[in-house]
Amino acid sequence: MDDKDPKVTRKIRRLMVKIDRNLCIGAATCIALAPKAFALDDEAKAILLDTCEEDSNEAIIEAAKSCPVMAILIEDEAGKKIYP
User: Fold this and answer.
1) What would the CATH number be for the domain defined by 9-83?
2) Does residue 2 surpass a pLDDT of 80?
3) Where are the domains of the chain?
4) Buried-exposed string 42-77: b where 16+ CB fall within 10 A, e elsewhere
5) pLDDT at 1
6) How far apart are CA 21 and CA 42, in angstroms?
7) Global confidence as pTM
8) Which residues, at least 6 apart from 25, have a Cβ–Cβ distance to it below 8 Å?
9) Per-residue pLDDT tens for 34-66?
């Protein structure tokens, strides 16, 4: 999967969300906080769902903050880091 893959990199409203699958350990805390945005695939790694717009920006940011290995990166439209 690469940066163009919508399962790992996606613009959600004004947020650019990227999952670093090399860091992801499948803890699934992101899913607990933003179940419409995140899921685990068959490799037990986080992916972004097509329903991600149904979770709020706040839920998505909290999900990123909950990741024990900081595998979810969030930037604003201008490329400024929001998290981590």
Assistant:
1) 3.30.70.20
2) no
3) 9-83
4) eeebbbbbeebeebeeebbbbbbbbbeeebbbbbee
5) 62
6) 13
7) 0.93
8) 68, 69, 71
9) 999 999 999 999 999 999 999 999 999 999 999
